[in-house]
């Protein structure tokens, strides 16, 4: 198996685990802000027990530390708006909105990751839009605010995955995960006092311990559906573009929708047009590997993605 093929296997394992995040987000009764805060805090607590993370932090330059911290703020904003979208609509709709990240990534990644703009990738990204339109038309009117918030979440995905790709060769994946989620936790803590005024639907107390029901789901969300796939995706992006990874991530709605039907019976809230839109999104995902030939990273690609040649390693969500 080549490095490129192994990266695709790794990213699809991540997507399978991420498929549960929308379901868990719906099952957890906490508002979006404390949900995200606890999710990140649990991951940070687990990473603090790993000696390799501390060694990586000591080896990291101040400039790189702040770069990853900035990306971590974007990650936290993505999660905040993602779970906000789920709370405002449902798990299926919130997960499907992530397909818009394909279009955003096709436009953003070439500039941020210093690679050539691809009209083919843009065309594939645009091919997702009719599916998204059908999805919007297939939900009740009261859920459409959730779609707008989900689209904003998709923009944050494109930004942080493209920036992570630019820094893919700079540090150990677990250390980067610790820095990014640590910065995200700090950002959410600072944002909490203003949230009731900015977006009351997302607000909630951070320092109240969750009940047993929510705590169990938060542990599953944080460890099995966050820590493991987050770190694995950083490894996968060493050998694939952020755009290719994002197309694979478009399969997340499929997993989420199937799980939502089985566990939450959400099919009663959605029309056939919604599922037709999901089918179009899935078709775009399957088309990408057929028209794209894997290529090995050349020296120019490495230089384009790394300002210095430090520890070989990484990056996404």
Short description:
This protein is mainly α. It is 74% helix and 0% strand.
Structure, described:
The chain has one domain. The model is unreliable at 293-317 (pLDDT under 50). With 317 residues, it is an all-alpha fold. The chain has helices at residues 3-27, 32-47, 51-59, 62-88, 91-96, 100-112, 119-127, 129-137, 144-166, 173-191, 195-198, 212-236, 242-249, 252-264, 272-291, 299-305.
Number of strands: 0
What Rg, in angstroms, do the CA atoms define? 19 Å
How many separate helices?
A: 16
Strand content: under 5%
Q: Which stretches of 5+ consecutive residues score pLDDT under 50?
A: 293-317
Give the helix level as a range of percent: over 70%
Q: Write down the overall geometry.
A: globular
Determine the mean pLDDT: 80
Biggest sheet character: none
Overall structural class, as computed from helix and strand content, comes to: mainly alpha
The ordered H/E elements are HHHHHHHHHHHHHHHH
Number of domains: 1
Distance between the termini: 24 Å
């Amino acid at each position: 198996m080549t490095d490129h093929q192994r990266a695709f296997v790794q990213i699809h394992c991540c997507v399978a685990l991420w498929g549960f995040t929308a379901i868990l987000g719906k099952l957890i009764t906490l508002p979006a802000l404390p949900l995200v805060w606890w999710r990140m805090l649990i991951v940070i607590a687990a990473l603090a027990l790993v000696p390799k993370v501390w060694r990586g932090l000591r080896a990291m330059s101040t400039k790189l530390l702040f770069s990853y911290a900035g990306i971590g703020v974007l990650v936290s904003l993505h999660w905040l708006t993602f779970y906000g979208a789920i709370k405002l609509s449902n798990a299926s709709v919130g997960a499907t909105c992530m397909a818009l990240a394909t279009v955003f990534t096709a436009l953003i990644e070439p500039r941020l990751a210093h690679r050539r703009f691809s009209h083919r990738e843009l065309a594939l990204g645009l091919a997702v839009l009719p599916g998204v339109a059908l999805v919007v038309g297939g939900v009740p009117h009261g859920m459409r605010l959730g779609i707008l918030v989900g689209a904003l979440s998709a923009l944050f995905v494109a930004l942080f995955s493209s920036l992570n790709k630019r820094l893919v060769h700079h540090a150990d994946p677990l250390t980067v995960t610790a820095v990014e989620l640590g910065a995200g936790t700090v950002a959410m803590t600072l944002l909490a006092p203003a949230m009731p005024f900015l977006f009351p639907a997302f607000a909630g107390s951070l320092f109240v311990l969750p009940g047993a029901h929510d705590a169990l789901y938060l542990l599953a969300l944080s460890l099995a559906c966050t820590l493991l796939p987050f770190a694995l995706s950083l490894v996968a992006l060493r050998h694939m573009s952020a755009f290719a990874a994002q197309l694979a991530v478009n399969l997340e709605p499929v997993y989420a929708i199937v799980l939502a039907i089985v566990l939450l019976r959400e099919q009663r809230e959605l029309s056939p047009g919604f599922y037709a839109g999901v089918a179009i999104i899935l078709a775009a995902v399957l088309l990408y590997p057929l028209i794209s030939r894997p290529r090995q990273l050349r020296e120019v690609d490495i230089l384009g993605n790394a300002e210095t040649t430090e520890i070989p390693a990484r990056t996404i969500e």
